[in-house]
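Go through this fold for my students:
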Amino acid sequence: MAKGAIERYLETIYELELSSEVVRVKDIARALDITYPSVSEMLGKLARDNLIEHGKYRHVSLTEKGAKIARRLDKKHGTIKRFFTEILGVNEETADMDACEIEHVISDETLRKLVAYLESNPHMSGISK
């Protein structure tokens, strides 16, 4: 399974955990616009990799390992989106969609340089690393 697909699931579960008390398979399927069987298959892999906790007919939750990856992705996403909207003037919706794709492939070196650029810009205070 591709790294980007795994990361999309982790980020989706993370976002769902932030917005609701419990995360169910149907919530993930709806958020990713995919079928329940596809979600169930991936959840099995994520559980085997100790990224989530999930039993049959139970809710889904991130393990500390999974949550750490999801938080890192969330920071990447926010940094990229902020660059697109505040520096390049891209509209929110487009910036969000583009950041969602780029966060899975951007190198650590490029991200560090992007953060350094944003921190050196007087209009961009508060960018997190």
User: Anything to note?
Assistant: The chain has six helices and two strands. The CA atoms of residues 76 and 103 lie 6 Å apart. The helical segments are 3-19, 25-32, 36-48, 64-87, 92-102, 108-120.
